[in-house]
Write a structure and sequence with these properties.
Number of domains: 1
Number of helices: 2
Distance between the termini: 36 Å
Structural class: mainly beta
Helix content: 10-25%
Strand order of the largest sheet: 1-2-4-5-6-7-8-9
CATH architecture: Beta Barrel
Order of helices and strands: HHEEEEEEEEE
CATH class: Mainly Beta
Oligomer: single chain
CATH topology: Porin
Largest sheet: 8 strands, antiparallel, barrel
Shape: elongated
């Protein structure tokens, strides 16, 4: 994971980006088309094989149908605990005559991976960077489902189901 120091550093760019997005949070939560909100999700991942839980927030509308959606996920299993802090951008695509919309996007992730050994004193923690590509379908206030494909230190594949409040 050390070989990807440039990616870890670039993940820290999320902090200023999130700060820039803060003034738009109030605007997005009262958005006329109801696209804002906080989402919670549960899912499974592969490589490592885990069950994960997470949350995300439609923080800021960057452009028409283009949102900044930071979030976090915690995965358990395969002798690992994986924490992922994501700074994702998604583009919403309205489905004609339907309350559903499709979305796709991606963004960087800060990955904190703890490997559990037989003796807890021998556990190791590595911090690295990753990048997620994602696609999903959602109701503005309701059910959503998504898949993620990760590169570098992110899990290779995730499938999650959640609800946006």
């Amino acid at each position: 994971m050390i070989k990807n120091r440039w990616l870890v550093r670039s993940c820290f760019l999320l902090i200023p980006l999130a700060t820039i997005a803060l003034p738009a949070m109030a605007q997005s939560s009262s958005n006329a088309n109801g696209q804002g909100g906080i989402g919670v999700l549960v899912g499974v991942s592969a490589a490592p094989d885990q069950v994960y839980f997470g949350a995300n927030f439609m923080a800021a509308k960057v452009a028409s149908n283009f949102w900044f959606r930071p979030g976090g996920e915690v995965g358990f299993g395969d002798s690992h605990t994986l924490v992922s802090l994501n700074g994702e951008f998604i583009y919403l695509v309205d489905i004609h005559k339907s309350p559903w919309s499709a979305y796709f996007g991606g963004g960087p992730a800060l990955i904190i991976d703890t490997t559990h050994n037989d003796a807890p004193a021998n556990n190791t923690t590595n911090v690295g960077g990753g990048f997620n590509f994602l696609a999903g379908i959602r109701k503005s206030k309701g059910l959503f489902s998504e898949i993620k494909v990760g590169v570098i230190d992110a899990p290779e594949f995730k499938f999650g189901i959640g609800y946006t409040f």
